Inverse folding.
């Protein structure tokens, strides 16, 4: 190889190593932060794509976790809306899906409010920070309760089957990312 080619190759490899080194600490931050939540593997998997945005910011980590929860809630809501129109539903299944949709809608509203409220936490301190953060924690906790309440209508053996199983899978996915988001919000509150 010509010397110029070797130098260019060395510089290319060095640039790649530097870029890799810059990404590694942010994923390490996500990994260490996710170690404290209930579902750490899910936490890492759902937040790793946003490592460049998150960097090592507890505030950005909490906001991103809430955005992931919001996105999963929107997907669950869309799924339930499609499922409700399914022709083969029993009346009790249709009713339970309708109730679940209301809970998911409430959850979406609360997570949306939390994302907006969390933006204020970056601009305030002291009692103002505590007040805004308390709102966020209350709404995310309520959203998690809504998600868990969704499954109440599917209780009993009469509701066993594919509909219950598919709804449970959707809602469990949302509840797990919301649980993780709440843990990261609480962690951010303690660090401030």
């Amino acid at each position: 190889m010509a010397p110029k080619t070797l130098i260019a190759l060395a510089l290319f490899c060095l640039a790649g190593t530097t870029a890799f080194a810059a990404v590694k600490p942010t994923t390490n931050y996500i990994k260490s932060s996710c170690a404290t939540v209930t579902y750490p593997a899910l936490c890492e998997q759902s937040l790793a794509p946003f490592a460049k945005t998150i960097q090592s910011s507890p505030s950005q980590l909490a906001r991103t976790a809430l955005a992931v929860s919001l996105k999963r809630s929107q997907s669950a809501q869309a799924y339930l809306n499609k499922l409700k129109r399914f022709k083969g539903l029993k009346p009790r299944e249709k009713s339970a899906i309708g109730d679940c949709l209301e809970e998911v809608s409430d959850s979406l509203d609360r997570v949306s409010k939390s994302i907006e409220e969390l933006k204020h936490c970056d601009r305030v301190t002291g009692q103002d920070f505590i007040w805004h953060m308390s709102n966020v924690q209350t709404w995310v906790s309520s959203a998690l309760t809504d998600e868990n309440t969704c499954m109440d209508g599917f209780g009993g053996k009469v509701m066993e089957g594919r509909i219950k199983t598919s709804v449970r899978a959707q809602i469990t996915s949302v509840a797990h990312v919301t649980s993780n988001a709440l843990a990261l919000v609480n962690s951010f509150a303690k660090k401030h």
Q: What stands out?
A: The chain is about 80% helix and 0% strand.
